[in-house]
Amino acid sequence: MEYEIENSKLITKDDYDKQIWVDDFHRKGSILDSKYKQSQPEDLYTALTGSVNNGCMLLIEDLPKRKVRMVDSYNEVTKYTDEYGKVIIFAKDFNKDSSVRMRFMKYLNAFIIDIDEVRTYNIGIALRKIDDCPVKPNFIVNSGNGLHLYYIFAEKFDFLDYTSGMAYIRKVKRVHVKGDKKKQDIIATADKIKGVYSKMIGWFLDPSYIIDTLHLAHGIRMFGGKTKNAQIRSTVYKGYDEMYDLETFAEITGVELFTKEEDEEYDRMFGDKSKLPVMVDKDESEVEAEVAEVVASPPPVVAAPTKRIRLDAEAMSERFIELGKLIKLPRRAAPKWTAYKYLVASIKTLVKIGKRNHSLLIMCCSGRLYQIPKNVVREDLLEMAKYMNERDPDDIITPANIETAFAGYFSNTRYKNETITKYIGIPFGRKQKELRQDGKQNKINDVILMLEIIEREYSANPKISLRDLSDALKLHRIERGRTFLSSDPDVVEIRSKYRV
Question: Which domain holds residue 442?
Answer without folding.
Answer: 431-498
